[in-house]
Amino acid sequence: MIPFLSYFITDAIGSALLLSLAIVIGTFFLEDATTLIVGLLAADGVIPIPIALLSLYAGVLCGDLGFYSLGRLARTHRRLARYVDHDLAAPLRVWLETRFILTVFSARFIPGSRFTTYAASGFFRSPFSTFIGTTIAATLIWITFLFCVSYWFGSTTSRWLGPLRWSIAITFLLTLFFVGRHNLLAYRAKRCELTV
């Protein structure tokens, strides 16, 4: 998937509009991987930094809005809507309402937690203005940090690591993936313990 994203983005380099669109679409699949690839390509001078950052921000925010909207849409489904006021969902709803800003903000930084947190926010009709403001702040911090780290890594290592730096970036991404997978499995196990 990561080589596909890299080729997908580099094939669009002739046009600023296509390049922006390729970056936005790339964030829908793997936002952290796309951010690292775009940072490395910007370090090589292939992608202008303003186009890179604005496209990353737009893509990530569109994805976040999509997760929130999926939660709102799920609420309209007859079988799922009955869980909105169900006793099993009440603790989750109360917990989300009392720690909403912190939960939404921290979901950006914890791999594997963003989809469930943002979809639950939409499902329980959490305030949209608070949701979008919090996700914008978290996105600006995380994507800027990740982009700057990959840009710095790319510009620092381009001479002495060459193509090997892509392997290091992929290893970092795989580490993020496995941390997210571990968090998801731990969450499912904890949820199973609570329902038994």
Describe the structure.
The chain has 196 residues and is mainly α. It has one domain. It contains ten helices and no strands. Helix 2 runs antiparallel to helix 3 and helix 7 runs parallel beside helix 9. The longest helix is centred in the C-terminal third of the chain and has 32 residues. The protein is elongated. The chain starts with a helix and ends with a helix. The mean pLDDT is 80.
Tell me the major beta sheet: none
Unreliable stretches, pLDDT < 50, 5 or more residues? Answer: none
Assembly category: single chain
Q: Please state the overall shape, judged from the principal axes of the Cα atoms.
A: elongated
Strand runs, count = 0
Level of helix content?
A: over 70%
**Which structural class do the helices and strands define?**
mainly alpha
Q: Give the termini distance in whole angstroms.
A: 37 Å
How many individual domains?
1
Mean pLDDT: 80
The fraction of residues assigned to DSSP E strands is under 5%
Please tally the helical runs, counting DSSP H or I stretches of 4 or more residues: 10
Q: Helix and strand succession?
A: HHHHHHHHHH
Return Rg in Å.
Answer: 19 Å
